[in-house]
Amino acid sequence: MNGILQGIRVLDFGRYVSCPYCGLLLASLGAEVIKVENIRGDDARRIQPYAGKDGLMYHTNNRNKKGIAFDFRTDEGKQLLKRLTSKADVIIENFKPGTLEKMGISYEEVSKENPKIIVASISGYGQEGAYRDRPAFDCVVSAIGGLLSICGTKEAGPRLVGIPMLDNTAGVVNALGVIAALYQRDRTGKGCKVDTAMWDILTSYMGENIPNYDKNKVLFEYPDNMDDPYGCPAGIFETKDGYIYIDAGWDNLFKRFRELVGGSLLDDRFLDFDTRLENYELIKKAAVAWVASKTTKEVDDLCVANGITSGPINNLDAVVDGENIRSRNMLKYVDLPTGGRVGFPSTPIRLSTMAPAEDTCAPSLGQDNTEIFRALLDMEEEEIEALRTRGILR
Q1: Per-residue CA distances from 388 to 68, 78, 375, 384, 392 (Å)
Q2: Number of folded domains in the chain?
């Protein structure tokens, strides 16, 4: 069995990261995903770094899709939109809330003729709510939603997460919502709206920090350093030639770690979790000295051999050139029309019944216009060319 979403047609109006990543996930599960762009194209095409003509952000998140481009803000374009949505199972988008209504393809409008349609929207703060109309990007929601208040140190202050985690996670959650809506549709025969908000995702991810504040009025405080305040010893340690993260804070892990380090850590008082937290600096001093006397590989090898959770702080060269990315088939090579052969991260969903498929290049702007408009809308070549001549179609 391959392509569990085979037969599902998705119109992907995504831009930048979140919605295109949702479309990438659905395509990896076998859905026919048609990327719908305006005449100018997704802004991600123009974001550095580039591989040939288009930006790598665009290529990364739009593989395995077909692509059409037309001016859907004109009256003729809106008519094309209406006809296309009548042939779709799913619409995914990350416009500002209210945009689909202006375009005439809101769930309420499309479902009149296509009651099975599923419209899955990603936004910063949701389709409803106090912040609905605020402009949003990943880093802004991270700030407003409290994430940056728990990232950083007292000395450095707040620090951004290095990748757009909320954008990508919104794509995952939206895809999950689409699959749940498809399952519901199989039982009821009706589609629905999916409302995915980055704010909601972050609020959910804040976990025990929220009830701890609600119950105890305790706010997270920046630590003095990069130690884990909830386990000892745990945190980032400097080796002879780099850095490594070690978490030996739990009792079973500490018993193994103290045998490696020796010295003051052999004091049996420290077998107690709370006692270790009370003596954090003393235990950390012994751990720091032991780690600093060895290379990163030496420390990591000893920890792994003794069942202690650890990992070197790798740069991307170690990740991409390492053995694990290939053993997990997480690097997919694609031949770009103007950028040569490039390796991209694979999607992480694995089903034992699905054989891995080869990735196809992200579509050039409007590359499938003729195919899609002929196959789905029964348009003749002359009609398509006339739309191109009038500047409606790419």
Answers
A1: 12, 15, 17, 6, 6
A2: 2
Residue 262 shares a structural domain with residue 143: no
* Mean pLDDT, range 196-217, rounded to an integer: 95
Query: Is 332 in contact with 344 (CB distance < 8 Å)?
Result: yes
- 149 with 266, same domain? no
> Which pLDDT tens digit goes with each residue over 321-379?
999 999 999 999 999 988 789 999 999 999 998 887 889 999 999 999 999 999 999 99
The residues, ordered by sequence, that sit 6+ positions from 342 with a Cβ below 8 Å of its Cβ are: 51, 56, 59, 333, 334, 336
Is residue 229 one of the residues assigned to a domain? Answer: no
> β-strand 309-312 against 243-247: which pairing, if any?
antiparallel
Residue with tokens 């999916």: 194
Mean pLDDT computed over 134-160? 90
Angle formed at CA 233 by CA 232 and CA 234, multiple of 5 degrees: 95
Smallest CA-to-CA distance from 193 within 129, 271, 115 is with: 115
How many CB atoms neighbour CB 143 within 10 A? 14
Is the pLDDT at 1 greater than 60, yes or no? Answer: no
State which residues form the domain around 280. Answer: 234-238+243-312
**What pTM, to 2 d.p., does this model score?**
0.94
- 167 and 252 part of one domain: no
